[in-house]
Amino acid sequence: MLKPKINASAVTTSTPLDPIRALERLRRVNPDITFVRFLRQDYSGVLRAKVLVIEACLAMIAGGKFLHAPPMALDCAVNSTVVPGTDPIGVYWLIPDWSTLQLHTTPGTAIVMCGVVKTTPSSPVPNGELCPRQALVKVVREAAQRWQLDFLVGFEVEFQVMKLSDGDEKGAVRHSCGQGHFAASSLLYPCWSYVEDCVRKLRTLDVHVEGLHPEGKSGQYEITLGPLPPLQAVDQLVLVHNVLKHTFSRHGYMVTMSPKPVPAVSRETNGQHMHLSIHPASPDQEEYFLAGILKHLPSLWAFFLPQDVSYERVGPFMAGDYVGWGTENRKVPIRKIEPGHWEIRSIDATANIYLTLAAVLSAGLLGLAGSEPLIWPDMSTGDWPNLSQEEIYTHVQLLPRSLDHALSALNDDFGDLDKMLGKPMMQHYVKLKRHELLQIQKMGPEKARELLVEIF
């Protein structure tokens, strides 16, 4: 722990809090707090943590110091291998957003979300150009300052419950069951009581849960989160994932939001649909914003679907498979619900959601800046609903069908998106995901599936 000169306001859209007062306030209500977890999500979507005991945490804050992470902190693939050529010199610093400080469901534990900055001996000024959290903060501020626009974001968390196989099958197998398609009979199975237990715990943590239900696939559940400002919505989503994992593990099971938790012979997939609303916006601004997202959708695919297995969701009624939108249309990637409110159906839980949302907002703001015309028709109107899927494909731009193709599309889009996200971040993301893609392919499909089930 050292004392670099760091601007903590770069990792929050809230008014920065005094950390000592925030911790002491939490301890007055919960005097048994022993541990503080400093959490961040890396480029592979993996939640990583460092933990301090409370006395060390208070001493660190009093000394104006910060926790450090090794120079490969943002260079790890999902299997924790490091990108070749990673610079071994320098330090990443974890910058807490103390407005996120709260209890965890683990007794005696508090958590706080962090951004990251880097310093090196030759460049001691903290550099946050690779920090996904800072990227989202920057885009949200740009929208507010340049266009006086705000956003609300909500997520639908789809998941299944797995257990370690006690038969001939290897690894984790599905434990949750039920008829699917929202059948009330699914509420009779033991897993449902654990889902309700999770929601009770989330409510004690002030998570904005709107609803829960058995989802469309057998043994699949969904928890719907209410709308919040972008950064708070993503922080809440990360907490929900963590609480789901923790709660079911205490019962001997494993929750997974992985996009394809069972082998490829099954059509069972999990998505993480994102609701996004923009306001106050004129009808023209709404169209420009949507057009910007659609224009960049092939390159955004690399953020939405960041694993090869993610592309088993590409198709109608899942992630979609061509550039398009439609009013209350679930066959396309973007469903319009009402003016200025869309559901982006393509994202899954292996994504770094800070970076993904920053990329979506960046694309939309580029559309605003360029007054991008909405040349894509509403696929719910005219003759479109009457056309077969094959007929539609002759009139639309198909989206990438593999991570390799999506990364190539992103690489080709550097000239636009890097105006908002910055070229170093874009280049770093592509480099890491290319390395990760090779690592996953070397593992083979079954071991890769098991890894993603465990992590996500």
UniProtKB/TrEMBL annotation:
- The highest taxon in the source lineage is Eukaryota
**InterPro entries from the UniProt entry:** Gln_synt_N_sf (IPR036651), Gln_synth/guanido_kin_cat_dom (IPR014746), Gln_synth_cat_dom (IPR008146)
Q: Where are the transmembrane segments?
A: none
Q: Does the keyword Isomerase apply?
A: no
Question: Please, one GO biological process term?
Answer: glutamine biosynthetic process
Q: Which SUPFAM superfamilies match?
A: Glutamine synthetase/guanido kinase
User: What family does the database annotate?
Assistant: Belongs to the glutamine synthetase family.
Designated name of the protein: Glutamine synthetase
